[in-house]
Amino acid sequence: MDRERSWSALDAADDGIIAGRAMDGDVAAFAVLVRRYTPLMRAYTQRMLNASAEVDDIVQESFVTAWQRLPELDDPAKVKSWLMRIVSNKAVDRLRALRPTADIDEFERPAPAHASPSRVVEARAEVEALGAALRELPDAQRECWVLREIGGYSYDEIAEELGIPVTTARGLLARARKYIIVRMEEWR
Amino acid sequence: MTDDHELHRLGLERADLDGHTIEELADYLDAGRSPADASIDGSAGCQLALDALERLHGLTGRLIAADAAAQGAVDESWVDRVLSGIALDARAGRRIPFASDPDEDLAITEGAVRGLIRGAENALPGVLVGRCRLDGDVTLPGEPIRIGLDASVPYGEPITRLAERLRAEVDDRLRTHTELNVVEIDIMVRDIRAPWSGGHTQGQEGAE
To answer: B8 pLDDT exceeds 80?
Structure first.
């Protein structure tokens, strides 16, 4: 009874309280963070990798790292963006493992064949059109775009994460933006 | 590039943007269109591109929210899987000896004391203890120790009264179960939970 009450109360408490307890070693509070942020962390990883495989492994690893590093968190109320940074890092690590050397040719690789615009416009809302355009982007452009627009990284941070020059990161982002805007215009 | 034709047609190339680039326009938006640039503000092509960039920015938040919602509820087997991978004893903290123990081989961990402090919430329905700090050298018997803790309280009850009761409960627990020389208990209420936010109102009955 006590346990039930305490769990439901924890579920309603804000991040600062929950993360503060988790920092102090309260596993029940950490479990609340896992429940609260798993969907967002999965979604982010899926967009980053453009695939579902390995997403769960990456999110789990991220939580393990988060538990270890929680005492380093300055402000428990900012645990959400802190978790997103961790999962973003893990996803980039995975990209690097899959593609050890940054190959400039890869950046030039053209996008795959377009999905049929009519199918998209019939069945999907604008948000889904954006999702579809994102899936069509070459890997490097998509990674830059996700880091910038969803992860909130600066250009310098993107360059550092991906191990590419800042000018390259900016160029990739410009092309990603153009491509997405054009595709979305086509689907309107 | 096969895309060049399309990009040109839709007006995102330098020629369509009166000499500007999409990169410059993205920077201009990031800077909040400040300082104002007359050559951008006065260009119809740039304005169209800026509108598209802004709309894209707004859509992104909705995309990731929709993606997260599509993930569905987190099942408990997933939570168990994550928790099975973490080291539960990671937060033992400092070793706090009992001076009354002649052999001095009895001690309590800082983590256990924090658990004791958090347990005070069980006496106060709806109150939650957040992070707590033990300031002072707890490894030396008799040292003055200040306790600092964050709390979350339910909406509707006088905060001063809740805090007073929480302080008394923490003090009582520490005096009963430890030999810490607690000289101060600071409480910072960081969160007031609205009854309509769900969850915490369940099962409160009969708790006192």
So the answer is: no
